[in-house]
């Protein structure tokens, strides 16, 4: 509804308003900048001759100029003993077994790769008496606190297969109608 009203006001007396704008006097253009006149002077033969003429005095001075450039010796800025600490990360080879192609070969000490994490979680789940938190921390160069947190909060998935009788019972079960 609002579009119709605005369209009516917009189109009202359009032809008369257009005729009025067309019949107005055109404004005078702004004056040109003085640099535009230099182009006309460049066409004169005196200026062309001056530009193309070679000056022997300047040529001899130019031939006397010899520039030799050398790079300054590179200086190492001394920070006055304020060196950033440089920590060399010790890396260890991963213990991958049969999954070598799936993971990285070296990891920093104190960290483990994804495949190693899944392996140690599975080992701990299957044999918790052998793969204790202390043994895992020593084997993978980890802190005991982190290993305890890892074993507490991360559990690998288990796959359960249902017996065939249970499958039939599940598929043959029909909901009761109320």
UniProtKB/TrEMBL annotation:
Residues 16-27 have a biased composition (Basic and acidic residues). InterPro entries: NDUFAF4 (IPR009622). One of its GO terms (cellular component) is mitochondrion. GO terms for biological process: mitochondrial respiratory chain complex I assembly. Residues 16-44 are annotated as: Disordered. Pfam families: UPF0240 (PF06784). Binds calmodulin. Interacts with NDUFAF3. Belongs to the NDUFAF4 family. PANTHER family: NADH DEHYDROGENASE [UBIQUINONE] 1 ALPHA SUBCOMPLEX ASSEMBLY FACTOR 4, UPF0240 PROTEIN. This is NADH dehydrogenase [ubiquinone] 1 alpha subcomplex assembly factor 4. It comes from Cnemophilus loriae. The gene is Ndufaf4.
């Amino acid at each position: 509804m609002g579009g119709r009203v605005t369209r009516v006001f917009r189109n009202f007396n359009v032809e008369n308003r257009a005729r009025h704008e067309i019949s107005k006097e055109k404004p005078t253009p702004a004056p040109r900048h003085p640099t535009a006149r230099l182009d006309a002077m460049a066409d004169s033969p005196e200026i062309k001759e001056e530009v193309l003429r070679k000056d022997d005095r300047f040529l001899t001075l130019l031939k006397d100029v010899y520039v030799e450039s050398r790079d300054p010796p590179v200086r190492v800025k001394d920070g006055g003993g304020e060196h950033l600490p440089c920590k060399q990360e010790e890396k260890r080879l991963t213990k991958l077994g049969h999954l070598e192609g799936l993971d990285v070969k070296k990891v920093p000490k104190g960290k483990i790769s994804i495949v190693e994490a899944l392996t140690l979680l599975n080992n701990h789940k299957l044999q918790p008496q052998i793969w204790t938190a202390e043994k895992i921390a020593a084997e993978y160069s980890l802190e005991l606190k982190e290993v305890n947190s890892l074993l507490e909060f991360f559990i690998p998935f288990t796959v359960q297969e249902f017996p065939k009788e249970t499958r039939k019972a599940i598929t043959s079960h029909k909901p009761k109608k109320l």
